# Entry
Amino acid sequence: MPVPAHLPRVLVDQARAVMAASRAPERKRLARKWELRGLLRCSCGWKMTTHTATSRGNGADYHYYVCNQRKDRGRECDCRQRAVRAIEVERVVWTFVSNLLREPATIRVGMERLIEEERTSQAQNPERELKVWVQKIADCAQRRSAYQDQHAAGLMSLEELGSKLRDLDTTRRIAERELATLKDHRRRVQDLEQDRDALLESMAEMVPEALDSLTGEEKSRTYRMLRLEVTPTTEGYDVSGALCTSVTPSG
# Structure
């Protein structure tokens, strides 16, 4: 920020010191790597979000994942899921996942299952369906032009033209929506295949001991490649995605 030259230097330095001190707590919070951000789902069905509480006694920060429903609705919420200590759930999930990452065959089987599920959720012949909807959009454009020509030639009233164009717009929107759905399916399969190959390749090149030195950001990226979703339960945590199982805290 530019500072007017007429201000005393000592005052400028003091102002900068105050500004830096006031920004420190914010930087501290932003610096934390929430390994499971966006990957935790409450048993009530809502996503869980991050929350940091500061102790009035010692000024220490405590980090939690909390149900979004409870956070939004407060006492009106009927969800009874308590806040989950971030350090606890992150430790449990990483211990579980890192052990499985030492077994590439298990990872491959899980990823192949996700890929197959995504493929079977598509149309029976996605390429043919793709061509059908592309042609439908092209037909709508041609018919729109033809109707406009007929109106210009006096062969169709303005009211008739408006009605036909509205019908075409409805057909076109449906075709565009179906086309987008098909492309999205295909993109998800491709993403899963790429993540499977990248994950297996990185695990093959990495010595087992190196897993323990991954950063929070690298762990989070690994979870997303595995399509992990974690739900707290009374016994521990349910894990879905490439690794469908239950995890019980230990220690």
User: Anything to note?
Assistant: Residues 104-227 form one domain. Helices lie at 9-31, 68-73, 86-101, 104-120, 126-152, 158-205, 216-225.
